[in-house]
Amino acid sequence: MCKCEGKGDTMNIYLIGFMGVGKSTVARLLSKRLDYELIDTDHEIELDEGMPVREIFKLEGEEYFRGLEAYLIHKIAGQDRTVVSCGGGIIKSEDNIKAMLGSGYVILLEASPEVIYDRLKDDNTRPLLQKNPGLEGVRKLMKEREEFYNKAYTHKVDANRAPEQVAEDIINIVGEFH
Ligand code: S3P
User: Fold this and answer.
1) How far apart, in whole angstroms, are the C-alpha atoms of residue 53 and residue 65?
2) For a Cys-Cys bond, which of 3, 91, 120, 132 suits 20, CB 3.0-4.6 Å?
């Protein structure tokens, strides 16, 4: 049963999930296919702050970043027909989860720690992975996040596959309820 029933006229698609599951790529594909506006929360925050997420964490700290994220997601919740690629930690706030569930479908992209580690092993843009390195770091953070992701999603998809296949699944989910 879709948790977004009774949400009124607002219909966004929020992609949530751990770093490296492919949210940004899938969001781009969906926005083209559905002709929805595209917002990538990390990218939007970087534009507003004039620096990469990594620098925001370093100079201002994680809490400051979470504040920007919360402000942005509440603003987006007032929009319609937007595909949102959400930073992996957006679900750490109950208020953010409420704002998303009240304004659209919240799709959890899930991939195995091995797949994620393989995709991100040479990435140095994610401060939390710098602090928790290696496959063990990915496993540890994923475990900590599990309960939050499980509270937040309306639907989930297997993101161990190519982004095109993931996008296709989401089109089918959204089409069912649209
Ligand atoms: C974070 C995920 C990142 C970014 C920041 C924190 C997290 O976004 O928002 O580094 O807490 O999981 P992606 O999920 O797009 O990598």
Assistant:
1) 8
2) 120
In whole angstroms, what is the distance from residue 8 CA to residue 102 CA? 8
Predicted local confidence at residue 177, as pLDDT: 61
Task: For ligand 1, atom 16, name the residue with the nearest CA.
Answer: 19
How many angstroms is it from 19 CA to the middle of ligand 1? 6
Cα 129 to middle of ligand 1, angstroms: 9
At residue 59, the 3 state secondary structure works out as: helix
Cα 81–Cα 78–Cα 55 angle in degrees, nearest 5? 95
- Residues contacting residue 113 through CB under 8 Å, at least 6 positions apart: 135, 138, 139, 142
Flag whether pLDDT at 138 surpasses 60: yes
| Structure tokens given for 39 | 């917002």
Q: What is the rounded (10 degree) CA torsion for 140, 13, 44, 80?
A: -150
Whole-number Å distance between alpha carbons of 157 and 17? 10
Element (H, E) at 113: helix 113-120
How far apart are the CA of 40 and the centre of ligand 1, in A?
A: 11
What pLDDT shows up at residue 175?
Answer: 87
Which residue has its alpha carbon closest to ligand 1 atom 10? 126
